[in-house]
Amino acid sequence: MKLADLATLAGVSTATVSRALSGHSSVNAQTRDRIKALAREHDVRPNQLARNLRLKSTGAIGLVLPLGHARTQHLTDPFFLTLLGLLADLLVERGYDILLSRVIPDGEDWLDRLVDSGRIDGLLLVGQSDQFAVIERVSQRYRPLVVWGANRTGQAHLTIGSDNVEGGRIAGRHLIGQGRTRLLFVGDPLPPEFADRLAGFTEVAADAGLTCDVLSTAMTPESVHVAMADRLSHAPPPDAVFAASDVAAMSVLRALAEAGIDVPGTTAVIGYDDVTLAAHTSPPLTTVRQDLAEGAALMVDRLMKRIEGEPGRSDADGSAIVVPELIIRQSA
Predict the structure, then answer these.
(1) Are 241 and 217 in contact (CB under 8 A)?
(2) CA–CA separation, 6 vs 295, rounded Å?
(3) Which domain covers residue 105, as residue numbers?
(4) pLDDT score of 316
(5) Which residue has the higher pLDDT, 243 or 106?
(6) Domain check: are 76 and 225 in the same one?
């Protein structure tokens, strides 16, 4: 059955049937429901490709993880997997297909190629990596772009993300409140989110008259484990470790266990993210939680508004901060 046949059954024009099946607001709700019921009864489906071409839409959203600073990381990282899953579910619920990519930037135009590909209606970036400048430049000409990451004063691109500075402060206050004085930050201090966590941690340490050592390492589990094991082999253990992520914290716990160091008796450990596995380490991991469900919902909401052409400035209007929360378990 064609749309014209369905229009005859419904007693309306073919144009009205087309608008009703696409959910257009110009057709009243009662008529839309009646036409959709007839379409289901007679198995009539509008041609989605033709509709997309007419509306200049692809029906797809890019969901991209840029890895400029951590090329060995994978989509199976528990943090990325959780956030990507939440975003994907929300996009599917809104009727979009997903173009999922793990991108290792190979030049200054990698993001230009994505947004100019003609394959997507909008783009969600999970993390800024070391690509802040590239994202800034592209966001000023491509509006339907939302990023999970850190927010810098005056930046152009719209971000949703944890208050990483406050998250670092929370970890520092908790450890110092326990009387810990030999503080160590473990992770890559360069990406914006990790840099902010370190900044908050060192700020609280300085306020308490303490210093914070930094064990700089790539963020793969094996890299963190090797770096921590090497440090423990030639230096006294710190009495407190704040790891840049839960995955890094788990590798720290492994290195401490192998060195026979009691956690939390000798060394307390705090992670960041509160991934599902954090509650099942030995001992269970104290961590700073990011509410990823709230963050994902905010990202998709902001992107949809930009795709729909909601008026706004060309800068980061709409950016939002997700409040971090300390989850106390046995490791600290």
Answers:
(1) no
(2) 42
(3) 60-162+292-324
(4) 54
(5) 243
(6) no
| Token pair 């004085």: residue | 181
CB 66 within 8 A of CB 105: yes
Whether 54 maps to a domain, the answer reads no
Instruction: Report d(CA 329, CA 332) in Å as an integer.
Output: 7
Tokens 């230096």 sit on residue: 235
* Edge-to-edge strand list for the sheet holding 145-148: 97-103, 60-66, 122-126, 145-148, 158-162, 320-322
Specify whether 220 is located in the same domain as 76.
no
What length is written for the chain? 332
Q: Which residues have a Cβ under 8 Å from the Cβ of 71 and sit 6 or more positions away?
A: 104
More confident residue, 37 or 77: 37
> Comparing 91 with 4, which gets the higher pLDDT?
91
Q: pLDDT over 90 for what percent of the chain?
A: 54
Q: Taking a C-beta distance cutoff of 8 angstroms, is the pair 175, 205 a contact? A: no
Three-class DSSP category at 127: coil
